[in-house]
Structure formats: C-alpha cells, structure tokens
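Collaborator request, handled under Task 6.
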Amino acid sequence: MTIGPPGSPGPSTFPPGFFERWFSDDDEGSGHDEEDILEILGESGQLGLRGSPPTVDRSEHRRPLEVMLQAVVSLGEKTSEGNIIEAVSIPWLAFLGHIKRDPSSLHEIDWRKWEEIIGAAYREAGYSVVLTNRSGDKGRDIIATKSELLSVRYFDQVKAYAPGHLVTLDQVHSMLGVLGAAGNVSKGIITTTSDFAPGVYSDPEILRYMPYRLELRPQERLLEWLREVAGPDHQAR
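Structure tokens returned to the collaborator:
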C-alpha cells in the first residue's frame, strides 16, 4: 500500500512513482480517458500503468519565438515619417508567457522586431502609430498619437540592448535635444531591454523633464507595460 498524492485522504493502491510519472507542475490535465491510464493487473487489484504518459497540447504557449513573431504588425500607408501600423497580429499571451518561462529569450529578438513589438503595444493601447524608417529616423523609432479631449504625441526611441549594455547619459541627453527640436511632441520615451547607466536617474538636467516630458522605460518597466497592454486576463496569471 502506497501513499497517495499530496492532499489525498489516505493510502492509495497506485504503484510508487505513479503521480511523478503521469503528472507534472506544467500539466493541468490529461488528454487520455481513465481506461487508457489505469489497468487492473490480476486478482490482487494492484493498479499499474499502461501506454505512454499523457500529454497536454500547449502549442500556443510553446511555439518557437521566431515563429510567434514572424508577423507582429501589418504596415499600411507610407508617410514622410515612416509606415502607419494598420493591424497587430502578435499573440500577447503566448509571447509574454514565453518571456516569463525563458527571460533570456528577450535578448534573442532583433532590434527592428522590438520596434514592431513596442509599436504594436501602442496600437493595442489605442494610439495611431507610425513605425519610422530604418535610417534617418531623427531619434524617433516610433511615433504614437492619440486624439481625445487632449491630443498627445509621443516619440519612442527603442534600445534593444543585451544585459550589461546600458543606455548612456549622452544618449538620454540626445533625446532631450530631439524633444527641443521637434516642438510638436508631448513626451519622449526611451525604451530598452537593458537598463540605464549610473547617474542617469539622478542627473539634474534629466530630472527637469521627468516624468511629464521624458520617460525612461528599462526592461522591468517594459515588461510591466506589455502585461498591462495584454489586459487583465494575462495579469492575473
């Protein structure tokens, strides 16, 4: 007589290792009928295993990252600033789940794809979005505009950096120059998959513009923002 799974009322006739072999933390259920799992062996009533372990189809959550991100956005009309994002096709739940399971995969995504992902997030949040040209972007990778009671226009500069590659103080000062030259922008945002160099958060010139004219979005805040965009269903997971 063996002991049943944690929380069971008492002894079990399941053989040792049954629950370890047939269930794991990743699997919430089985695709097999009960008769496919258990078999009575002889007159002893001892229960054994038959067939191969049950599987759960989680293909939506386990698709390779490169497949998941093949077509993040659909680009529409080309303007003088870049291409308007017309539609978003990124499966947010699967993408964020992948990043949560394997945080290092965040750095496997190339810089242009990150621009598309962030542009897609603005589009999902209700903004009209332009993905700027690959060259001559004038320090603006994404232009996000929303016209409601008060119109807002954001310039987002995306720094898809590896861990340890920090956004420098000079780069943040350059964004301040972009804001001063443009005139028709509500806020400048620097989004990075890494973090900002020491001194950036305490620089007096930068602090003068934060948070209303300048926002710094390091990796932790980036992922938090993407979860907010994905909606309450994902946040509860």
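The cover message to the collaborator said: "Residues 75 and 85 are 5 Å apart (CA to CA). Residues 2-10, 21-45, 54-62 have pLDDT under 50 and may be disordered. Please let us know whether this matches your experimental observations."
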